[in-house]
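Bump. Still looking for Sugar transporter SWEET1 structure tokens.
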Amino acid sequence: MRTKSTKCLSFPLTVTTLLTSTSWVLYGLQRRDAYIMVPNMPGIVTSLVRLWLFWRYPPEQPLYHSLQA
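Sorry for the wait, here they are.
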């Protein structure tokens, strides 16, 4: 957050973590098993925070300059 950049964060990993944690929490709700739900809730929260960071500080785009003769 100090650098206001998300170049060190992996967007695919963030989305995958959100989907996986959500799947396990929904499975835990279906089974009514807190031992499955509780450990996966922080994964949802941290993924949402990381997605917010991607929205707030988009990754730096490389600048392409055309060579002029």
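Residues 15 and 47 are 7 Å apart (CA to CA).

Edit: fixed formatting.
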